[in-house]
Amino acid sequence: MSLLITSYGYWGVALFILLESAGLPLPGETALIIASAYAGAGNLSIRAVVICAASAAILGDAAGYWLGRAVGRDVLRFFRVKEKNVRRIEAFFEKHGPKTVFFGRFISILRTYSALFGGISRMPYAKFTAYNAAGGILWAISFGIIGYIFGKNLPHLEKIVHETNLFILILLIVFIAALYFLRRFRANSGAA
Description:
The chain is mainly alpha-helical. The chain has helices spanning 2-8, 10-22, 28-40, 46-78, 83-104, 108-120, 125-152, 154-191. The chain has 2 domains: 2-152, no CATH class; 154-192.
């Protein structure tokens, strides 16, 4: 993933997010966080990363919606999903569709499939688009900021990890030495 981001930058991030949002189980959120961390380290523009991520999320979900609307029922039949389960999806989206599209952006499995199910259940496209855009923008900003802060602090975090590892190594050496001397003391005490 890092190689894709370093090689293709914004296009790599956009592609992962677009395909994930259209229904392929890819790590779009991870791509966003990695690209944002690169931006925090000064290698990319955080503004451009967030704009690419939000745009790709919105467009990918729109593609997923229309794919679900056009062939979603046929695909469900192909995988032998019972009609009563399709009706459950429709009823769920009738009641919770907007919330699912908005909050689904923040939940892994829903991020990949909520647009498809929105299309399958024939959620009104204008309503879908409004919640899709709001969720995509908020998601890109939120996870973009998280990755950016991580990238900005990476040198500091590396220093902390290095110092922590050194401290743990010293503790381990002291612990092993203490065990060694304790065993020797017990062996000498038992022999006396």
